[in-house]
Amino acid sequence: MGNLFNFSPEEIYTFFAVLIRVSVLIAVLPVFGDKLIPAPVKILLSLAITLAIFPGLLKQGFVRPGDAAIWAASTWGILRTIGQEVLVALALGFTAKLVFDAIQIGANLASNMMGFSMASVYDPHHETQTTVVAEIQVAIAMLAFLALDGHHLLLHGALDSFRFCGIGEAGATALMQTRLIEMTATVLKFGIQLGAPITLVMFAVNVAFGVFSKTMPQMNVLVLSLGISAFAGIIVLMLTAPEFQTVAANVMSRTEDWMQGMLVAMAGR
Hints:
Distance between the termini: 33 Å
Order of helices and strands: HHHHEEHHHHHH
Strand content: under 5%
Number of domains: 1
Number of strands: 2
Strand order of the largest sheet: 1-2
Largest sheet: 2 strands, antiparallel
């Protein structure tokens, strides 16, 4: 391997297997897989990362070109290996996205209680309708994620994936399914916790308006409640912004552990 043109056939197969895992990861990971990033940039980034980590993977024995003589001997072997690499990348990307889904759930819950669901906007990141409050909180969480070097953790997780699951060694095990169910439940719990402060205040406001509507039937509760609910929610949102950053950072700090747990599950350990 003196230069790029001295690759043996087995090394070329192994290199492209690594490239497939890295490129799919870059396409689905948070930050790197943002839909606003042009596809050529993602392709060049995937190729650059693969070229950078491939010699180290060979040196540490995480990938073995000799194995390519077995799985690349037939078309079915190549297709099966490519499918396993795509599975690893999609599972890791889904695991990393779950953290941001927790923030999205909490923000949408708070927005609906504030009455902002009637003024939803299109979110190009998730390709769906969302609220302004959700956009603000997700942006804050993204900045906190970058401040915590979360993008470096994602790249480290991509490199570490070869230590747990070599080329063609991953599988959809029962333990993997159990991990997915556990993480989904945890995401729902975190989402409710993040949206709890505004939700509780909005519940108290609605109870107060319910009492007022009974004592003063002539008052237009529907019109009055919209403005007051939005105003109270914004005040609570501003007051709880530091705590939100702390909780969001705590949630995002679990990303690496979740990714490693998913890799262990796919490796059947």
